[in-house]
UniProtKB/TrEMBL annotation:
It comes from marine sediment metagenome. One of its GO terms (cellular component) is plasma membrane. Pfam families: LysE. PANTHER family: ARGININE EXPORTER PROTEIN ARGO, HOMOSERINE_HOMOSERINE LACTONE EFFLUX PROTEIN. The keyword Transmembrane helix applies. Keywords: Cell membrane, Membrane, Transmembrane, Transmembrane helix. This is Lysine exporter protein LysE/YggA. GO terms for molecular function: homoserine transmembrane transporter activity. It is a multi-pass membrane protein.
Length: 148
């Protein structure tokens, strides 16, 4: 029923979706252009460092507050755990596994961000990163434009 409803909405508001699609493409192109033209000044343009604990806490809070993760758990949890018989012990185990997994992933991202910061110290490297990002945004705009 949901697919039929979504198909009906898509058919009814087809012009609106087309306008929204092309506005999105124009926005991606504008972002790509601005990123390509962005002046590079090396290390001064990098964000200021924060304490590792503060950065880790922010990352965990952002990850745990992500609605996609909540929807994922709502969709997956009933197939893995019998919710009617799960007790406190099972919930503690699930929470511990989930938070540990997210912490390991956030620590890996933090490590990679630190390495990227070391790479982006020169204006040449910053310019290269901006150009790669601009090409990626332009490619995304082209991919969206060529889809029906």
């Amino acid at each position: 029923m949901a697919m039929v409803g979504l198909a009906a909405i898509a058919q009814t508001f087809q012009l609106g979706f087309q306008v929204l699609k092309w506005l999105g493409i124009a926005y991606l192109c504008w972002l790509a252009f601005k990123m390509w033209q962005q002046p590079t000044s090396g290390e001064d343009s990098l964000p200021q460092r924060s304490s590792p604990l503060s950065m880790f806490g922010t990352g965990i809070a952002l990850t745990l507050g992500n609605p996609k993760i909540m929807v994922f758990y709502l969709a997956l949890l009933p197939s893995l755990v019998n919710l009617s018989t799960a007790g406190l012990r099972e919930w503690v185990i699930l929470a511990t596994v989930a938070i540990s997994t997210l912490a390991v992933i956030d620590l890996a991202w933090t490590f990679l961000a630190h390495k990227a910061r070391l790479l982006l110290r020169t204006p040449k490297a910053t310019r290269m990163a901006s150009r790669i990002g601009a090409v990626a945004l332009g490619g995304a705009a082209a991919a969206v434009a060529t889809r029906n």
